[in-house]
Amino acid sequence: MHAIIRRYEASDKIRTSEIIKKAQDRLLPRLSEMPGFAGYYLIEAGNGVFSSVGIFDSQIQAEEFNGVASAWVREENLQTALVEPPRITSGNVRVHQTRELATA
Predict the structure, then answer these.
(1) Residue at 97 is within a domain
(2) Which among 33, 61, 65, 77 is most buried, taking Cβ atoms within 10 Å?
(3) 98 assigned to some structural domain
(4) Under 8 Å CB-to-CB from 29, ≥6 apart: which residues?
């Protein structure tokens, strides 16, 4: 299992809702069709900071996620909202555990 984290630190704070909606409506469907896709999380840290975590079966598949995410930013014209290039961390997942989350 391989994870890739993209952190955007200088996002346009006004366009936060737009970024979230476009990620859910347009990016997530593309990612879910990718081979080896295991999960995607978008984290809003406040003050215009976002991090995304993509989980894939292999390093090659995770690196393809980077290309898809970069293309998505361009296609959705989000370059002005996500003004700094993301800081990217990628690596093999060494320890993990999941459980089903209870819903309210």
Answers:
(1) no
(2) 65
(3) no
(4) none
What is the C-alpha end-to-end distance of the chain, expressed in Å? 30
- CATH code of the domain covering residue 21: 3.30.70.100
Residue identified by tokens 């936060």 is: 16
Distance of CA 93 to the CA centre of its chain: 16
Walk along the chain (104 residues) and give the pLDDT tens digit of each residue.
999 999 988 677 778 888 899 999 999 999 999 999 999 999 999 888 899 999 999 999 998 998 999 999 999 988 888 878 899 999 999 998 888 776 65
Q: Kindly state the tokens that stand for 26.
A: 């347009």
Q: Is residue 14 assigned to a domain?
A: yes
Does residue 50 sit within a domain? yes
Q: Whole-angstrom Cα distance, residue 42 to residue 22?
A: 11
Tell me, what amino acid is at 5? I
Domain count along the chain: 1
CA 104 to chain centre: 25
Measured distance CA(82)–CA(77) in Å, rounded? 10
